[in-house]
Amino acid sequence: MHTVAVLSLKGGVGKTTVALGLASAALRRGARALVADLDPQGNATATLDPPMTDATLTDVLETPRLAVIQEALAPSGWSDDLDVLVSSEDLELLNEPGPDTRRMDNLARALDVLRASPRGERPYELAILDCPPSLGRLTRSALLAADSALLVTEPTMYAVSGAERALEAIDTIRAQQNPRLRPAGVLVNRMRTRSYEHQYRIQELRESFGRLVMPTAIPDRLAIQQAQGACMPIHEWKSPGAQEIALTFNMVLAKILRSSRAGRHRLDHAEEPETAGRAVPHPPAAAETTSQFPVPQRLGDRETG
User: Fold this and answer.
1) Given a cut of 50, is residue 20 above it in pLDDT?
2) Residue 283 CA neighbour count, 13 Å, CB half
3) Burial class (CB in 10 A: 0-12, 13-18, 19+), 297
């Protein structure tokens, strides 16, 4: 089971959208997946629409035993192949900073239990940890438990400084507590291909982080809000915008899983991007322009449902 933490340092950048998009892409691949909703807002839990449970992830982080985990675990409304460790507002109480680190590894312990005893017969191939929009205790617990960390950002003036702080935290935890952790990349969300400001900020990200910036971005489309409002996977929402976004998530998930099989840290040497099923060369950073940062289908800057 590969475990990916999806994180950001500020709210409103679409972190949960990305976590749900990866879950949708996993279902499309036929992979059995788990979403652990660590965000006290519980947006992933609400969209995945599981039945009521007798416990929540708060209880699991307090007591990571199988009986408690089973009470907090439920099949999603999307598919029996996608389970949810459900969120609650009480998670915020566990996010406070402090010197007590005794429970920081309880999420990792709970995931180890689920590896050994998954709900149902099939093992999980992917666990997606939807983190709160901060570097508090909950996000750090996720980084302790994860194999990789995907940083979500928007093409704004704050993107570089936020990505720097998040990647520093990832490197610190990798060096001190979780040597298998590696950055899966920086994923830009809500990209408008005809916005000069967005083009400039993406170029700025590339100059700072090079190949850590994902070769595809999530375009700004109404289809995301429409699918989430209907509690449906983006791959099942029938519109041109949804098809474009679904293809992007397929590519992001494939890159995460492919690099996890490679089994090595890729800070300075990332994989080549994949377009239409084949690898394409990546130009050096000095020659890169935003034209090298395509979305799978160019639908312009209009909102396409």
Assistant:
1) yes
2) 10
3) middle
At 24 the pLDDT is 95
Distance (Å, rounded) from C-alpha 144 to C-alpha 29? 27
For residue 300, what are its two tokens?
């312009």
Look at residue 3 in the predicted model and tell me its pLDDT.
Answer: 96
Contact (CB, 8 A) for 119 and 106 = no
CATH, domain range 2-292? 3.40.50.300
Distance, C-alpha 231 to centroid of its chain:
18
**Token pair belonging to 229:** 């409002």
Ranges of each domain in the chain? 2-292
Mean pLDDT of 135-158: 91
Residue where the block lists tokens 């293809």: 247
Say how many Å lie between the first and final Cα of the chain, rounded.
34
| DSSP letter for each residue of 1-20 | -EEEEEE-SSTTS-HHHHHH
Confidence check: pLDDT of 163 > 60: yes
Distance, CA of 38 to CA of 143 (rounded, Å): 12
176-180, 204-208, 296-300, range with the lowest pLDDT: 296-300
